[in-house]
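Inverse folding, one chain.
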């Protein structure tokens, strides 16, 4: 009888463990303020926590000075608006952008005085379906090790406390040990636009899925929430799957962006939106606990897999950013012609001729 009672209690404890879910901040845009890598005027241009150096993918033809400029981050001004073919035209591409939007100190929200993501999308005015994705400048790396930034914008070696931790955890775009998603929440400011908002998430198999958060047809700050319709709260009706504890990789999700969809029946032209953060509630994929033997220190299987994945992420990220750097270097910087009517221009022309 005592043995039966013990097994019943153990089963109830196990069931409550599996039924519980965890809440985590996936990405908090108030943390992405530009605070590092100053420009020629001394103004910071990148977010220090998320700075990535893509010069590792550059060829040997670049100088050291050029490679020192090959940096980008998740600073809000680095995010991009990608329009679909129905919405893409030169005017829309040029005017659609992401900015850092300061919230007034007098605002009645906990993040008053901080900067959130501000988005402008130029949708076509004619009647057709159109959508825009708001995405980071690069795919957020899941396996970039956590390390501090020095005064030159270079990553230092991880400290003892930082070893085993990753750069984009803790509200910078990656959450680990994610099993079944239960809910997703977005804190956003509505402007009475009848457009639909989706959240894009990528898993550790590099599969991106979108989740409908609802319409933005409201005014003021609001939390939009998606609830998994297939989530089973009763553990007895779940399909239990058991996986080897080691060396199975820990499942994760990465923030891949937002998608705003405008229906052909709704008004077009400019869309303005503001976003503060994205949170998720999820089941744990595995129960972490202290074990008698440190498997990873002994075998190093997961570390090797993560190193290979990190190298692949950096290669894809670096090639794209290098091509953008080259394109930016070829762009015209002059906004006006040099006048031929001033005395200075004539004297310069005479000096040029004399030198020849």
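Residues assigned per position:
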């Amino acid at each position: 009888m005592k043995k039966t009672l013990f097994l019943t209690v153990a089963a109830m404890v196990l069931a409550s463990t599996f039924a519980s879910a965890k809440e985590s901040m996936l990405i908090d845009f108030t943390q992405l303020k530009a605070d590092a890598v100053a420009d020629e005027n001394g103004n910071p241009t990148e977010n220090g926590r998320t700075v990535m150096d893509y010069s590792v993918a550059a060829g040997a033809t670049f100088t050291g000075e050029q490679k020192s400029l090959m940096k980008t981050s998740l600073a809000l001004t680095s995010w991009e608006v990608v329009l679909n073919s129905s919405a893409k035209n030169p005017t829309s591409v040029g005017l659609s952008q992401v900015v850092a939007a300061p919230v007034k100190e007098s605002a009645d929200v906990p993040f008053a005085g901080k900067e959130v993501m501000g988005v402008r999308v130029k949708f076509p005015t004619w009647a057709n379906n159109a959508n825009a994705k708001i995405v980071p400048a690069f795919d957020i790396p899941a396996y970039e090790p956590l390390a501090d930034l020095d005064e030159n914008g270079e990553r230092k070696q991880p400290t003892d406390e930082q070893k085993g931790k990753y750069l984009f955890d803790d509200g910078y775009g990656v959450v680990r040990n994610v099993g079944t998603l239960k809910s997703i929440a977005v804190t956003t400011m509505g402007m009475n636009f009848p457009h639909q908002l989706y959240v894009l998430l990528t898993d550790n198999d590099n599969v991106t899925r979108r989740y409908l958060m609802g319409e933005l047809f409201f005014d003021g700050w609001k939390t939009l929430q998606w609830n998994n319709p297939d989530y089973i709260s009763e553990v007895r009706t779940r399909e239990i799957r058991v996986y080897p504890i080691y060396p199975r990789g820990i499942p994760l999700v990465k923030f891949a962006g937002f998608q705003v969809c405008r229906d052909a029946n709704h008004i077009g032209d400019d869309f303005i939106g503001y976003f503060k953060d994205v949170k998720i509630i999820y089941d744990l994929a595995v129960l972490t606990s202290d074990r008698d033997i440190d498997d990873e220190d002994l075998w190093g299987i997961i570390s090797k897999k993560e190193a290979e994945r990190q190298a692949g992420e950096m290669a894809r990220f670096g090639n794209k950013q290098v091509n953008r750097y080259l394109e930016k270097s070829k762009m015209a910087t002059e906004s006006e012609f040099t006048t031929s009517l001033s005395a200075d221009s004539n004297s310069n022309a005479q000096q040029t001729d004399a030198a020849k």
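The chain has a mean pLDDT of 84. Helices lie at 2-19, 64-68, 90-95, 295-299, 301-330, 343-355.
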